[in-house]
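PT: before anyone asks, these are the final sequences, not the draft ones from last week. 230 residues across everything. Please model them as a single complex and drop the result in this thread when it's through.
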Amino acid sequence: AQSVTQPDIHITVSEGASLELRCNYSYGATPYLFWYVQSPGQGLQLLLKYFSGDTLVQGIKGFEAEFKRSQSSFNLRKPSVHWSDAAEYFCAVGAPTGFQKLVFGTGTRLLVSP
Amino acid sequence: GAVVSQHPSRVICKSGTSVKIECRSLDFQATTMFWYRQFPKQSLMLMATSNEGSKATYEQGVEKDKFLINHASLTLSTLTVTSAHPEDSSFYICSASKRGVSYEQYFGPGTRLTVT
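LR: through. Structure below.
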């Protein structure tokens, strides 16, 4: 069975500083990998996804993530955080079986300090 | 765009009553809709998957007679919590996927259910 671990429950970053949110997964093969952001009152929004190919994936809002097979990781990064990035971030995995089910991590709450 | 709405955004009901939550895809046809439950400070847990015109597929441990899902059209799915109890209080989120767009789910803003 697939599982996703986001070891950091919350992270505080100063505005303008860089950000890295960690995500580790457990799956027998290479899964499909996703990062979503959840803001209050809004639905989860897809930031980026990895299916195959280049292991460095660019997403929206200046985010990127790198798939590292050897570490079973898919960490999310942003070089300079803005106050509007404060939100809950979820990593998710899907098995390439065609059933389109996603398994989510427990999320990391990002706080941005002035 | 791919917008999914949910109604209501918040609902309070008394124990023993039923409550219906609607999920609509506003600008696309949703071949598959998903229902999740999110507990405070926890992850989204998939409850069921439904395809238009078919019976929903429930995840293990989810009572299908308690959480009735109807996917009546390509733009509407409903979740009915029957005989609700306080332990059913939670945040319920739906998502929808488009035909031909694999694995990309578009999420609604969620419904906060409180059972008193």
